[in-house]
Design goal:
Two copies of one chain form a homodimer. Chain A is of the alpha+beta class and 661 residues long. The first copy, chain A, has 23 helices and eleven strands. Mean pLDDT of chain A is 94; it is low at 463-470.
């Protein structure tokens, strides 16, 4: 163990294991998680080459091998609980993704949810025995967010009782689905349904794309990998071009909508049913944000405790870089954010579980709020995390740029969350739509419930988007409850500002739609402030659940830092709205510096509490033992360009060059 | 040509070619640049595979081939002007780097600057004929920014008249130098010189590392590639471990300091002499920022003009995504930034050239200011560009994540500029040191000259870091001169705030050094505000040189957007300091929306004016003709995972899996 990092651990003021238990949801959960993780890291079958040393094709190969292995091992161990499977897979995948991820995440659940009983009997056994490996083909080259714009067609031919599927244009080629390129032999294809001369919008069809025994593409199918990406090298995101591909009528998923043999279309009873899955996945992404940021902070903070550089006092030894105020200012607010997002992720999961119970009983009342919240928080947390990972990486100096740090991998694997499952700006605007609607309801005197109820209060208080000299500033910048209030008022004011912008545009005789588009900047800002309020609030509320004094104390410091750092970064909003005075904003800056010093002795312990196993972190900089340099050297020496002392390019180009000059 | 992008070009209000000429520095420069570029793209020897389709080793191989080729071709064409060479190489390299870059950028210049006449006669012909290929080995695994911390030793042995070089620890292993791993047979090694029992600090030594004919590492040398990185896959950044490596006394670079045969050390006459190179490289990086951001904006804006998505008005066709206010708000401020940085880059180059003339005549008076300015602007522009590239990438939706967009490549190749040639936070603090020193001089009544002279005025005006209700707000948010003033005052106030923070820390009996560290957040903020002021000022001044009315008009709009967007993003500073009133900050938001609409018709023309050749951009999304989807499909189909229809992993893992279940 590196002596610096050992000393850091000795200086911590709280019990790390107890905090880990809180993060896991109880000591027994920690125990079980570690049991499952040890099944992976003690398993020689999971020893593998660093994927960064492999070619794309080798990486894909290794990932498919691992997918197959995991299927067998999970059955062998009898692990069937979704959370435990998730934990096992996360450990096995480290910073990378599963080649067959979409088979489990989308193909199987869609079969479960949208097959009629007869279809279930046919397809589920095939998919569960991996005779059929599937993916979910929704997005097209020219169409992402806007589903109605999809161009793929499925036209019913009653003569043969088949659907004929086509990609009528280049932009209609299915593009991006994971596992589509090489792995899957079936795809659930979203296509515009036409029957009896009428269009009925998007429906889902099971389309065989490769021969089940030879794996060769079937006639009419052009399928392949979409080529190298920023990350996701393990995954064969694919394209699919359909040219008069015929599938039997029974391959349309018919639990809800149907096409009768004669071509008669039968409408689905409700359209809300697929709503829940989206909400679920977006809630999961909030947790993914927390986890990616926690990993990044673990690497950067541990490394900053063993890295010595430059000087603070001349003549003294080089200090740990964690002693620099600028380094603390980069990392500790992100550490606070990682904790905040962890608790928000827990909240979202609990809320989702509670509400899905209601949904199963036909009660959809809370779904719109959760939908709006999950959309905004997905965007808010992924954006923050996305830039936060890069701050962590760059805070490691040059070595953060090496793949051995794992930070490049964490970034490229995480960054698509800003785009997929609902592009972030679109998400923010969805939340804004809910906020503006709620604002108008509040203004019309309706009593709101749930998290937007503050819009009633705001209305009551007649908050103005200008500093009200008369309003006494009662904010206590050291009191979290008071800060939650001030974040709430900021959100209320910005929602009002956005709503008024729309109003003004309408008064200039703009259409409703143009007024919306011309207020979009304000709307995104309002959503952002709303989400920020929710995060500060949930972090603060979480503190109420924590009985251990030492842990309560350090988490309170983190929560305070989180709240005050947000105020500094958006001080214009708080000043502009008269929520804080100029001297208070200056005090906030001073207070932040004090909090940084206060957190300094607990920084390493706080990342230790995330308890990310070295094998999962896979970072020479973030090693638990702090022995960075020896392992960096070892890693470098084993990298492929060092397999020979002299690279062939010397003989091919450099030596001949001399004679040509 | 895609009809949408054609229409965009027809709608432009200015002559694109004339603006290109302004960016190039005159029509004849544009002409010559295009001539040189055409030498590359019309040359079949430069046709190559997309590096993204190759393994690391193949990429390195291709890059070495290209390096050798460029050497021969440049001699063949007789291109010898450094700027023309730069232009030729940039075109040949596209978004990637040169394998032998450090031979040209550091090894040769160091020989030129630090060899005594005898050494020059020996080494220059060898290096210029590529018998000797060299690199510059400064950083060590445990030591980057802080040169005095370097551990490599060179101990003089008078008995044999040799230096003995050693890497005494793991952390002392030379790490990161480009071309060190595989390409170079010599390195200029920076090491702590010991002779006659005394240490004399860092000196440079020419160390042979590989046999000149077999290219095998020499005895005592452990050399290799440091392994895969985020980017820079073409470059063999290397490590070098020295174990009692003996080199003749004559291999110490002895133009300035010397070691006599008996071991007597002779001090160099001045220490300022290597100062200039750093300033030069940092100034160049400002230009690199402009170019990386210009490329990214070109891709994102062209793609946004051909991409249709979602709906603004129901029932109407999907609009170009450039019509969304949120998309404009992401991209147009970055476009303005790209122009701003281009002009700042031009200014830095001119100033450097002017001042180096003075330096050659022994006049160092302007060097400290240029040094401070280049440090801060290097940090300011690279940070802004770094996040800006990612905003551009994510504004392209999913396709920005594909390597075919080129945006991942642009990002990973650019992002090290935030770290190398002076880590950005350290750079900001260097500038801050100059600002605080100047502030104290001003306060002591000294008349400052140059760009910091505003600190005199501020002192004169007794600006306080609190809103001065009495000070009449005379800022006109539509007048650039007025905005330059307000940025200047903000900088002055933040410099004062930082200086006062140091003062307060000193009063708490902190040492000078601790006071500095405890004020580092404020110091970075002050530098940032100073650089921001300089950029707004230089952009505004550039407008004065532009006579074409239409171009003047569109660039003025860009400059105004740049200035107002900065105010919105830092509105807290402007409000806190009482520089702007709350109603003015609200007006700024409204005005920004108007400017976005105003720029909309010129957006494509403004990126066209950067005149980045398709071959150099290498982006399917950023193609000049806008024919995005066809080429994305073509690119994907030619990617390596599609070289066979069935990947071997099917036979190896997926088929066998079925029988095991």
């Amino acid at each position: 163990m590196n002596p610096d990092i050992m000393k850091e651990r000795q200086n911590a003021t709280f019990n790390v294991e107890k905090l880990t238990n809180i993060l896991d949801g109880g000591p027994e959960k920690t125990k079980r998680r570690r049991e499952i993780e040890s099944l992976v890291f003690s398993d020689p079958d999971f020893h593998e080459e660093d994927p960064n040393f492999l070619s794309r094709s080798e990486r894909y190969d290794q990932a498919v091998r691992k997918s197959a292995q995991m299927i067998l091992k999970l059955r062998e161990y009898g692990i069937a609980d979704p959370e435990e499977i998730y934990c096992y897979k996360k450990m096995a995948q480290g910073n990378h993704h599963e080649a067959m991820g979409l088979h489990f995440a989308m193909f199987l659940p869609t079969l479960h949810n949208q097959c009629d009983p007869q279809q279930s009997r046919k397809w589920l056994p095939l998919a569960e025995s991996f005779q059929v490996i599937g993916t979910y083909a929704q997005t097209e080259m020219g169409h992402g967010t806007h589903l109605r714009g999809l161009e793929t067609t499925a036209t019913y031919d009653p003569a043969t009782q088949e659907f004929v599927l086509n990609s009528p244009t280049v932009s209609s080629i299915k593009w991006w689905p994971g596992g589509l390129g090489k792995t899957s032999n079936h795809a659930i294809v979203l296509a515009q349904l036409y029957t009896q001369g009428n269009g009925h919008g998007l429906h889902a069809f099971i389309v065989p794309i490769r021969d089940m025994s030879t794996h060769e593409p079937l006639p009419g199918i052009v399928v392949g990998d979409i080529g190298p990406k920023f990350g996701f090298n393990e995954v064969d995101n694919g394209f699919l071009k359909l040219d008069n591909v015929r599938i039997p009528r029974e391959n349309m998923l018919m639990k809800y909508a149907k096409v009768e043999p004669d071509g008669t279309y039968v409408k689905p009873p409700s359209s809300k049913l697929t709503y829940g899955t989206m909400v679920f996945i977006r809630s999961l992404i909030v947790g993914e944000s927390a986890s990616a940021l926690a990993k990044s902070c673990t690497i950067a903070i541990r490394y900053s405790s063993v890295r010595h550089q430059s000087e603070i006092r001349p003549g003294e030894p080089e200090p740990q870089i964690l002693d620099y105020q600028t380094q603390q200012y980069k990392l500790f607010p992100l550490l606070a954010t990682a904790y905040a997002f962890t608790f928000v992720g827990q909240y979202m999961k609990q809320t989702y579980n509670r509400i899905s119970g209601d949904i199963n009983e036909g009660d959809f009342s809370e779904l719109p709020e959760l939908h709006a919240l999950s959309a905004g928080l997905k965007a808010f947390t992924t954006w923050e995390t996305n830039s936060g990972i890069e701050v962590c990486r760059m805070s490691c100096g040059g070595h953060g740029y090496s793949r051995s740090s794992a930070l490049p991998d964490i970034y490229v694997e995480f960054t698509p969350t800003c785009t997929y499952e609902g592009e972030n700006t679109v998400m923010m605007l969805q939340t804004a739509r809910y906020l503006v609607k709620s604002y108008r309801q509040a203004k019309a005197g309706q009593q709101l419930s749930g998290i937007v109820s503050y819009l009633n209060e705001a209305e009551h208080q007649r908050v103005q988007p200008q500093p009200v000299a008369a309003r006494p500033t009662v904010v206590n910048i050291n009191d979290l409850a008071s800060l939650v209030e001030v974040y709430k008022l900021r959100a209320a004011i910005l929602v009002e500002l956005a709503a008024k912008s729309i109003q003004q545009e309408l008064q200039r005789r703009k259409s409703q739609e143009d007024a919306w588009n011309n207020s979009a900047i304000d709307l995104v800002r309002a959503s952002d402030a709303h989400c920020h309020y929710v995060v500060v609030k949930l972090f603060t509320e979480k503190l109420g659940e924590i009985s251990d004094t030492a842990i309560h104390s350090v988490l309170s410091t983190l929560a305070l830092l989180y709240a005050l750092h947000g105020i500094t970064n958006h001080s214009g909003d708080f000043l502009q709205d008269g929520l804080l005075s100029v001297p208070q904003v200056l005090q906030v800056s001073v207070r932040i510096k004090e909090l940084l010093s206060q957190l300094r002795p607990n920084a390493v312990a706080l990342v230790d509490a995330f308890d990310t196993h070295d094998k999962k972190l896979n970072s020479v900089l973030g090693r638990y033992d702090g022995n960075v340099y020896e392992h960096m050297f070892e890693w470098a020496r084993s990298s492929p360009l060092n397999s020979t002392e002299v690279h062939e390019s010397f003989h091919k180009y450099l030596k001949p060059l001399r004679s040509k000059l």
